[in-house]
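Protein: DUF378 domain-containing protein
Species: Pontibacter anaerobius
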Amino acid sequence: MKFIGLFLLLAGLVSLVVEFTGANLLVLNWLSQFGETGSWVIRIGVTLLGGIIYYLRRHDD
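Structure follows.
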């Protein structure tokens, strides 16, 4: 579970950085169908969810 949280956290952070730079990745194109606000909510939500999961399970091995 710790790995899933870390993966979601890093994927969300990469997605946010890519959006700030204006690059357009094929993998993230599906987010544009939700509009600008919706895509930001999804990106931030995934990042927060990953951070929460990782924080709660950080001592699991």
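Remarks: The chain has two helices and no strands.
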